[in-house]
Amino acid sequence: MRNSLIILLALSFTSCKRNNQLNLNLITTNYNNKKLEIERVEYLINRIDSFSNGLVWNNKGYGLIEKDFTDSLFGFSFYGKRFDNQNEVIYYKGNGFIISPKQRVIQ
């Protein structure tokens, strides 16, 4: 009885494992399908640069990337802002802009 139970458990575990094998093509297809569903990505970033002279830059900011199928160069639009200098960067339909609200300048 005990041996039968052990064999039954072993068979059920190994049969389950065979049915759940990873299929690279299926994983790739699912990834590509999910990737197409993404319309926009927003993120906060914290980039720390350390230099050999001991200087450390700690830059923080915000970014937004949106799909834009009408853009022939990249296929997306972009907005970014660093929190330390208040400058903003926009890329929209092949045109890039740097906005400096303090100086009231758009380049």
Structure described in brief:
This protein is of the alpha+beta class and 107 residues long. It is 30% helix and 40% strand.
Number of strands: 6
What does the main sheet amount to?
6 strands, antiparallel
Main-sheet strand order equals 1-2-3-4-5-6
Global geometry: elongated
- Estimated share of beta-strand residues: 35-45%
What is the average of the pLDDT values?
A: 82
Give the termini distance in whole angstroms. 82 Å
- The percent range for helix content is 25-40%
Overall structural class, as computed from helix and strand content, comes to alpha+beta
Number of domains: 1
The count of helical stretches stands at 2
Radius of gyration: 26 Å
Uncertain segments: none
What's the arrangement of secondary structure elements?
Elements: H1 2-19, H2 24-37, E1 40-50, E2 56-67, E3 76-82, E4 88-92, E5 95-100, E6 105-106
Antiparallel strand pairs: 1-2, 2-3, 3-4, 4-5, 5-6
Task: Please describe what this structure looks like.
With 107 residues, the protein is α+β, with helices and mostly antiparallel strands. The protein has one domain (2-106). Helices cover 30% and strands 40% of the residues. It contains 2 helices and 6 strands; from the N terminus they run ααββββββ. It has helices spanning 2-19, 24-37, and strands at residues 40-50, 56-67, 76-82, 88-92, 95-100, 105-106. Strands 1-2-3-4-5-6 form a 6-stranded antiparallel β-sheet, with no helix packed on it. It is elongated.
Please give a handful of descriptors for the protein shown.
single chain; 107 residues; alpha+beta; 2 helices; 30% helix; 40% strand
